[in-house]
Specification:
Strand content: 5-15%
Largest sheet: 2 strands, antiparallel
Number of strands: 6
Radius of gyration: 14 Å
Strand order of the largest sheet: 1-2
Helix content: 25-40%
Distance between the termini: 23 Å
Length: 124
């Protein structure tokens, strides 16, 4: 499988990630940030990589669970700022008529149930 950042397939990139789930690094880091802010166990403890049910899992399920735990404790996201550091694949590009970063922002906004204006994605 290819590389996924924030639910968005990386365009024109032939390599993939080695991961138990889909390996979406942005979703995983946001999940860990939410869980950490709630002083809860990290993503690896909640979703262990030796659980066969999670093999190839879409990381949106981890985001949904982190959001549920946050909401159940009376919290919500004010802002979300993500910096993706990689040389390849490039994400400051247009793909199928859309900015890859705008697709990523839209996915985070939807999953965190927060306005798009409160979500930022940077790539270096």
């Amino acid at each position: 499988a290819g590389v996924r950042f924030d639910g968005t397939e990386a365009p024109e990139f032939e390599l993939g990630t080695v991961a138990h789930s889909d390996g979406d690094v942005i979703y995983h880091s946001v999940v860990d940030a939410i869980l950490g802010a709630l002083t809860m166990p990290d993503i690896g403890q909640l979703f262990p990589d030796n659980d066969p049910r999670l093999r190839g899992a879409d990381s949106e399920i981890f985001m949904e669970e982190a959001y549920r735990r946050m909401r159940d404790r009376g919290y919500k996201v004010g802002n979300c700022d993500v910096t993706l550091i990689c040389q390849k694949p490039r994400v400051n590009v247009e793909y199928l008529g859309n900015s890859v970063k705008s697709l990523m922002r839209g996915n985070l906004s939807r999953l965190l149930r927060t306005p798009l204006t409160c979500v930022n994605v940077k790539a270096r």
